[in-house]
Amino acid sequence: MDRVNLLVPADVVPRLAIPEAARTSGVALRGGDLFLPAVPAGEARTWVDNNPGVREVTRRPAVRRFRPHTYQLAAVLFLIAAVQPLIVAGAGDLEEPLPWWLAAAALAGAGITAGYKSIPFDHVRFD
Q1: Beta bridge partners of residue 27, listed in sequence order
Q2: Alpha-carbon distance 52 to 69, whole Å?
């Protein structure tokens, strides 16, 4: 039997008669949306036809807390900050440069992560 994943928007959730089995397997997302994994295809088609806004999705949606611009700004700031420990560790006569190198790596990793979170993939929604 074919099964599909459904995304039920927050404004549709109160109006939709969701069977108990789907309620227990559903995952509440930030913003009030409901993700229903592995719904039988026939039942899912009925839900989509009868409830505007309910749609089939291929994977669990990711909801980002901030707008893409905020993640882009954070990425730039983290990457600029990552250069500073490199300068100190590379140019200074430090007895223990390892913490500086690790700080640079951590800041660069945070910058790359923030940059990745700014990409608007199909499964990503920004609040």
Answers
A1: 35
A2: 30
